[in-house]
Amino acid sequence: MALIEINNLYFRYKDGTQALRGLTLRIEGGRKTAILGPNGAGKSTMLLHLNGIHLAQQGEVLFAGEAVSRSNERQVRSRVGMVFQDPDDQVFSATVWEDVAFGPSNMGLSHKEIEARVHAALKATGMWDYAGKAPYHLSYGQKKRVAIAGILAMDPEVIILDEPVAFLDPRGKDTVFAILNELNRRGATVIIATHDVDLAAEWADDVIVIAGGRCLAQGGTELLVNERVIREAELRYPVVARIFQELPELELPVLPGNVPAAVAALRRHLFAVKGK
Amino acid sequence: MLVYEERLKDSMLGRMETRLKIVSLLTVVIIFVSLKDRGLLALGVLGLAGAALATGIRPSAMVKKMLWLLPFTGLLIVLFPFFTPGEPVWTLSTPLFRLAASGAGVTKAVYLALRVVNAALAVSLLVQTTPLSKLLHGFRQLRLPGIMVSLVAFTLRYVQVFHDEIRRMQLAMKARGFRRGRHLLHRRSMQVTGLMLGSLFLRSYQRGERIYLAMLSRGYHSDSDCCGHCPPGARDWLTGTALVAFGLGLKLAEWRGLAIWL
User: Fold this and answer.
1) What is the pLDDT of residues B185-231, one digit of tens each?
2) With contacts defined as CB-CB under 8 Å, which chain B residues touch A84?
3) CB-based contact A109 B219, cutoff 8 Å
4) pTM for the whole thing?
5) What gap in Å lies between CA B219 and CA A77, rounded to an integer?
């Protein structure tokens, strides 16, 4: 059984925008999943369903086999953590420490437990030295890490990030992904929504492509070099794949989408040449 | 702005249990407001100012905060002597009108000033030594209606949001060469400011919505029970009793007429 299942989900905003039109997908536990799609595809709306903030208007969202509903939304929120795109929307307390303690406090944990969790979360994100600082004095990348720490402190099984590396510098991106990989290694399910095909191709185990409020395709990273998917979802080929598109003489059966696949393909080709 | 100061964390009041702190400071303010003796009221001000200094609040910061009160009560204090009827003690004569300040009015103004300063000192002692989340939680535990606490929480939260949005918009306007007019009635400035306020409202509304969702997703609910219940310890009771005893002492002094020497 998949950890998260969405079946035929529809959602319409109050202003009449129909964001989801029969979305169906599965997300396996303990994996790294990237959700891709153009602007307005319904990615963020879908993510808000996973966290119980939006409830299904039609269709269903199952978390660990149980339908997310008004009666269990709070419980779901403590098991599924969500990091918002703009840390300024999320980080608001007077000090970093207080902000990271916001979630655990809402969970009604004891003061001792809250202190332990905040400490662990700030250590894991490398922000412990800033615990007493005011968040608005931090850089964007640091605020992002505080936002992630705020979710880690709730110790969720699933952590969702909406555009986790938008506006981050390369070093900031690396830091965020190092944190996410470490979390995943410890057993957390990590889900990100992104426009960045290169990033998805390098990082994800599973890929879900959404367009027009529906799931267009779901599978491994090979989807990102699938011509039909790329066209319909208004994506583009990963840079690595575009290099190989310019080299038809290699006669590769499948375009490599990321660095390891490219290296493997090149090695095979080089050995074949040498062998001749 | 009145905000929590991390460096005051280890002061006597900083460590005090929140509910007890709220109740004892509130009690002190109520006692002070009931005082009818100017000297004792002034002593109360000195006492609270002393407590603030002992807590580590800087005198300059204290004075600055008092200045914030001016637009609210300053005007009343200045006008009281002039519209309270009584024996004139000072007259301002101009060819057009005559203004007389009454003795009773001056007394009233002094009372008001002292009471306001007292209350402001107590509030700043409370707010500067208590993190916002603990303060709100304290109010909730004291059974203040949840909706009131949420209102305070969101007001404080959104003041910051508005401020940020204005700053960003002004910066973007400056970057495109906009300069505010030299006088208040400059037509273009007014136009631009009007537009800015309109879009500020919309943008803040949208941002507020996202912030609220982010709070919800971290498990926020209006009756959020943060920090659990930690009962006040002996030291907390001692501090609270000392505060209230100070207030009661003054009240007692007034009642027994011991304040003649002041």
Assistant:
1) 777 778 888 888 888 888 888 888 888 888 888 888 766 555 555 67
2) 210, 213-214, 217
3) no
4) 0.72
5) 6
pLDDT grade for A142, boundaries at 50, 70 and 90: very high
| pLDDT tens by residue, A182-237 | 999 999 999 999 989 999 999 999 999 999 999 999 999 999 999 999 999 999 99
Q: What is the pLDDT of residue A113?
A: 93
Contact assignment for B219 to A77 by CB distance below 8 Å: yes
Q: Chain B: residue nearest A148 by CA?
A: B218
* CB < 8 Å from B in window 144-173 of A: 150-151, 154
On chain A, the residues whose CB falls within 8 A of the CB of B210 are 84, 86, 89
Asked casually if ipTM beats, i.e. exceeds, 0.85, the reply is no
Mean pLDDT value of segment B91-97: 78
Nearest CA in chain B to A149: B218
Q: Domain spanning A4-95+155-236: which CATH class is it, in words?
A: alpha beta
| Integer Cα distance of A212 and A200 in angstroms | 20
| Domain range summary for chain A, segments of one domain joined by + | 4-95+155-236, 238-276
Q: How far apart are CA B21 and CA B134, in angstroms?
A: 11
Q: Is A135 on the interface with B (CB under 8 A)?
A: no
Residue spans of the domains in chain B: they are 6-130+231-255, 146-217
Plot region of A108 (φ>0 → left; ψ -120 to 50 → alpha; else → beta): left
Cα(A122)–Cα(A99) distance, rounded to whole angstroms? 11
User: Phi and psi dihedrals of A184, rounded to 5?
Assistant: -65, -40
pLDDT tens readout for residues A34-77: 999 988 899 999 999 998 889 999 999 999 999 999 999 888 98
Q: What is the pLDDT of residue A152?
A: 92
HSE, side-chain direction, 13 A CA sphere, residue B158: 17
Cβ–Cβ gap B227/A84 under 8 Å = no
Phi–psi pair at A38, nearest 5 degrees? -70, 170
Tokens of A177: 């992904």
**Per-position DSSP letters for chain B, written without gaps between them:** -----GGGTTSHHHHS-HHHHHHHHHHHHHHHHH---HHHHHHHHHHHHHHHHHHT--HHHHHHHHHHHIIIIIHHHHHHHHHS-S-EEEEEE-SS-EEEEEHHHHHHHHHHHHHHHHHHHHHHHHHHHS-HHHHHHHHHHTT--HHHHHHHHHHHHHHHHHHHHHHHHHHHHHHTT----SSTT-HHHHHHHHHHHHHHHHHHHHHHHHHHHHHHHTT--TT---S------HHHHHHHHHHHHHHHHHHHHHHTTTTTT-
Whether A78 and chain B come into contact, CB under 8 Å, resolves to yes
How does pLDDT run across B230-240, given as a tens digit for each residue?
678 888 888 88
